[in-house]
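Lab meeting tomorrow. Look over both lines:
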Amino acid sequence: MKVTESKVFYRNFNKRLSTIVRGKGIYLYDKEGRKYIDACSGSVSANLGHGNEEIAETMGKQAATLAYTHMHSFTNEQAEQLARRVVEYSGQDYEAVYFVSGGSEATDTAVKLARQYYLERDGRSCKHKVISRWMSFHGNTIGAMSVSGKRGLRQKYDPYLFDSPHIEAPYCYRCPYDRSYPQCGLRCAQELENCILREGPDNVSAFMAEPIGGTSLSALRPPDDYYRAVREICDRYDVLLIFDEVMTGFGRTGRHFAMEYFDVVPDILTFAKGVSSCYFPLGGVMAGSRVVEAIKKGSGKFTHGYTYSGNPLACAVGNKAVEIIKRERLAENAAKQGAYIKGRLAEMAAELPVIGDIRGEGLLIGVEFVADPATKQPFPAKAGFNAKLEQAGMKLGLALYPGGYSINETSGDHRIISPPINITAAECKLLMDLFQQALAQVCHELL
């Protein structure tokens, strides 16, 4: 029988992918009949798992009623309702929500919004530079990649990227300044002030950060007072604070939004992924009153727009997803199951001497692997630790999220454990049993 050649332009033509034909709950099923625990929620995005019948029904009804309006000419009830629902869920008094199709568009929107805020407020402001952190990821459009800090992703496209200064991340396990917290005096936060002064406060519009890190450094969580110091610095130099909560929002970290851990409210907050649990492409930007009011009292127009902004079908899915997350108290479940996972990992670290650091919150848990926990010596890249762990997991029916190259982007292995936030205790135990088996196989091979 002749095999039909795929016409899909894949990210990696050298990697053979299983064809998934259906999903239910935390499980994915391929066409050969194998099933996998989705231990990473796709790309840390399928917060409600797969095959949710409430959402499927909502999609069908909305598609039959109204699937599209262009926000330049019309509004729609679903967008209006979701904007109110998202602001309420945030627990903060945000003034307005701008809907987009995903995280990269949300980043671009936030960058443009920060720039226009100063133009509207001051008339001819020079403020335009957005500072972010090395080893951050804010999306794959040219704008979003410009503010992202993964050198490996940026390198090929560097000629197209705009000037965006970067500072070191609060990577306490491997402090870039060879200090220890709290004796370090939050040097990583003070570097923001140094960067603003180098670039000139009159040129800097915003500082963008993931409150708890995503894939680049696997759920990196800074010290509790890091963002309070950052907020003070931003206020001192009239710089907007932007939180990228694309991965951390809507219950993922055990709170409604990760900003709650730090008692800091950003001027602009981006979201995506969990808002629709990826049943439909959807993202957005929440903006505080001073940002929105500057535009209202100025030109009255945000010079920006996408074809699918405020799409009624996308917003209907978002309304149902957020309703379920809130109704079923899934942030609380994420906190509970995440505590169990951390406990299991701590137990495993005593038996399998490759776990160097356990970090994150809720069901965004990062694990960094090392060849020697005492010295934090990483495995050499040629050892292929991450690839071996992925392969071992797949054979056991466990899909894990990739991570690595956190040390000078040449070595360093880590993984995110981030199943759907409605995972049950029994499912969580099975997930960790399989993870332990996979890790033990890799340890047996490498040690």
